[in-house]
Amino acid sequence: MDAIVMAGGFGQRLGMGEKPCVELLGKPLIAYVIDTLRASENIDRVFVAVSPVTPRTEIMIQERYKGEVRVIRTFGGNYVGDMVHAVETAETVGPVMIIMSDLPLINPELIDSVIKKYREEGKPALSVYVPINVCKGAGIRPDTVFNKDGKLIVPSGINILDSSQIRNEQEDFNLILDNPKLAINVNTVKDLQHCKDLLQGQE
After folding, report:
1. In which region does residue 17 sit, left (phi positive, over 0), alpha (psi from -120 to 50) or beta (all else)?
2. N or C: fewer beta carbons within 10 Å in the chain?
3. In terms of Cα–Cα distance, which of 92, 101, 85 is closest to 48?
4. Where are the beta strands (DSSP E) in 31-109?
5. What is the pTM of this model?
6. What is the rounded distance in angstroms from the CA atom of residue 195 to the CA atom of residue 124?
7. Which tens digits make up the pLDDT trace of 141-158?
């Protein structure tokens, strides 16, 4: 399965320039996601979708990964449109993982477990969510909340889609995981510090 990291947003709330390039313990945020994907047993190729507002991200990826991670330029401004363009440009076949660039706490085991669940469910698409109480426990105030059978859930920024049907709406399995590592995506300086504290605690 291929993976596309969406890195076209500037990250205005963080206020530190291009968000994918913001350093966390000396390493760009996006590099945590890319390195996790490359270490996953079930991910083949890794692509990064950039936009006109993330030119430094493109340069950094090319310098850091020396062509082993391909950059795809999107038009920016429309997340879904950029994602469709990236999938079609990558010429992926079968399922493709779409993931945000600001999830520094995820690990290869988590990625592989999500893919395993996708294969077991057999639906064209899968979206990963965390219960809202996990976000609250992690001190995170989510931007987007959905009601699923009376439970409040928050999208994690990890999805799997059938690339052959990328322009169509796809039947979607909601995978709800009580995993705090999925609850923390970096939108503010406070989020960045929180990730720093957690990563240093793992050492």
Report:
1. left
2. C
3. 101
4. 46-50, 70-73, 95-100
5. 0.94
6. 32
7. 777 888 888 889 999 999
